Here is the input.
Amino acid sequence: MHDFPRAVRRAGAAAAAAAFAATALTAFTGTAAAGTAPAWCKPGGTLSARAMPQRVKIADCDLRGRTVRGANGLSAIVPSDGTSLVAHELRTDGAAELRVQVDERRGEIIIGTRGGRVPQGRPRGFRAPAAACADGTHRAEPSKWPKGTTVQWHYYAGTAGLPRDPVAAGIANMVNARTDCDDEGRFTPPPDVNEHYAGQANRAPNVTNAAACGNRDQVNTFGWHAMPDADKDVLAATCTWFNGPTTVETDMALQTQDKKWWTSGSCPAGSYSAEAVATHEAGHVLGLAHVEGIEHENLTMAPSIASCDNGPTTLGKGDYDGLIALYGGR
Here is the structure.
């Protein structure tokens, strides 16, 4: 599935990247009177990041174990085991990111969201996208695996009867720096991180039916998952838990609810390349974040993907440079 030209990939990605650059961070500050919880700190249900300050004192409202919904619609259960997390959704019309950093030493939790939808028409300030093989732009997550790590992952097949091969291929594409920018088909040296398929999982990834990050179970699980309560445009969700700068677990779920997937042969109309989506999500697994700006739409980590687009299965210069910045070369 490697015949989709880079020059025509992502028909709507330029607009998506422009929209993704708009950041939604709640900016007000202030604390409640001593002994009184803030009005937004309700005892049950999901809490909205729009209603709370960006930095929440645990003494004012203990968010650990509570579900927080970001301004971009992405939700996560705030870890109660001292870890932090970053959540990503890849959508047919854009992308979303939610960061929840738990600092128990300082007694605070920091919430950050960003993301956007595809606007109609060409955005203002349009700039032609750079060639993927020349565009060195990259952006990192707040954590990564230790250099030299072999990420052990389990595969969850779900109930839709979809194959493991494109998921495994996507992970290998990222780890092995697969590219069409070089005659050998990969950048050299590859990053100093590896992956190993550790067998079938009997539990789904820790992603809820609404594509929210759930509670971690210390197992990296990647695969297919029906998320019937998610936004209809969600293609995949990846959750990463970390301690300080070190990733400790990642889960990846590709949406099977009401989605058509291209897994082999010619692409059926309206389907999405499972290998391309898995390659993009594997970038998050290894610590790459979305790159913002319409001029970067040809990179694998651009925050959008079009139907029948397998261009993201091969990395651009920025994708590779980001991996080398994180891990160095093998």
User: Anything to note?
Assistant: The CA atoms of residues 89 and 237 lie 4 Å apart. The longest helix spans residues 274-286. The radius of gyration is 19 Å.
